[in-house]
Design brief:
The chain has about 100 residues and is α+β, with helices and mostly antiparallel strands. It has a single domain, classed as GMP Synthetase, Chain A, domain 3 (2-Layer Sandwich). It has 3 helices and 5 strands; from the N terminus they run H-E-E-E-E-H-E-H. Strands 3-4-5 form a 3-stranded mixed beta sheet, covered by helices on one side. Strand 1 and strand 2 form a beta hairpin. The longest helix is centred in the middle third of the chain and has 13 residues. InterPro entries: Fe-S_Maturation_MIP18, FSCA_dom_sf, MIP18-like.
Length: about 100
Amino acid sequence: MSENAKITKEMILEKLKEVIDPEIGIDVVNLGLIYELKINPDNTVYVKMTMTTPGCPLTMWLLQAVEQKILEIPGVKDAEIELTFDPPWTPDRISEEVKKRLGMI
């Protein structure tokens, strides 16, 4: 991929599907943990995300995994990951595909 290749939200979300929450076994995208995703003109990426619970023991591991995956995308200069609990995560945020797999719908 050339230096001028366009980085897209779809590319980033696909890469983030490789980050699996070890406790739940579902990726951070399908869990609905990614609240906001911005690609800046300088090819830095901003992600606002949450955890399933504020006291999640894997918080730092997941934040680092998300940052690492974004930085693996050719052309990405840097990644900023912001953790938020507003609004709090609920199982409603899980993708339809995973809800079906888990028998939630």
